[in-house]
Structures are given as C-alpha cells and as structure tokens.
Amino acid sequence: MKKLRIGDLVKVIAGKYKGQQGKLLKFVNSDRVIIEGIAMQSKFVKKGFLGNGQPGQIVKKEGSIHISNIMVVCPVCGKPSRIQIVTKDGKRFRQCKRCKALIDIEAKPETRKELRDKKEDKSKI
C-alpha cells in the first residue's frame, strides 16, 4: 500500500515551491509527482497541432516535483505529517503520525476472493 495516493492534499516542504499546497494529480515515475497548480511550465504548441486549424499558442501545464519534497496534509489536524500503515480488523489503513487519525475510511478488499465475490454480487443486480 502506498503512503501517497492520487487526490491527496499535499504540501511542498522543500525547494522553489516551498509552502505551497495542492492536490496530487499523478505519478510520473517512482520518484516524481505532478501537483495541481505547482511548478507551472509554459509550452509553445504549433499551429494546427491541436486540430481544426487553430493558431499556435502557449499552453501552461504542471511540471513534476520530486516525491521527497512533499508531505501529505492530514484532513483532521490540517498539518503536513508523516503517514504510517496500520492494520485493523484485517484491513490496512493510512494513519497520521501527529494526531493518530485514520486518513482512509474506506478500505479496499484484501483478497482476490473478496474482489470476485463483489463482482458476482454486482452482476446479479
């Protein structure tokens, strides 16, 4: 289970964008992430590249940031904190190390059998 997930609110703790917060959009590779509204880059797009004979334009998009420069913001205490994995009732959850609050309320099924049973239940409906 990863400690970071797409959709998490994260804060940049080091580098040029230190102190800024945003939503985690995607993982570029194992050690770089893209965060909404942070590390904006300009790119010139040629005429006709977007289709329908549109003129050339400058497009702004997010650049990547190294994963070591960000921390998850706890939804309960609102502060950036480290995350630990805890097991309760056979299911794994992410927990804030500052306030000990569970970040994940919904838990995903652990076994293939549980996944198969869920699919069968949906197909019967």
Would you spell out the secondary-structure blueprint of this structure?
Layout: E1 9-12, E2 21-29, E3 32-35, E4 40-45, E5 57-62, E6 64-66, E7 70-73, E8 80-81, E9 83-88, E10 91-96, H1 112-124
Antiparallel strand pairs: 1-2, 1-7, 2-3, 3-6, 4-5, 7-8, 9-10
Q: Keywords for this structure?
A:
mainly beta; SH3 type barrels; 2 domains; 10 strands; 10% helix
Instruction: Provide the gyration radius in Å.
Output: 20 Å
How many domains in all?
2
Quickly give the structural class.
Answer: mainly beta
- In the CATH classification, which architecture of the largest domain applies? Roll
Q: How far from one another are the termini?
A: 31 Å
Mean pLDDT across all amino acids: 84
Categorize the overall geometry: flat
Low-confidence stretches: 106-110
Order of helices and strands: EEEEEEEEEEH
What is the β-strand count? 10
Could you please say which CATH topology of the largest domain applies here?
SH3 type barrels
CATH class of the largest domain: Mainly Beta
Task: Provide the helix percentage.
Answer: 10-25%
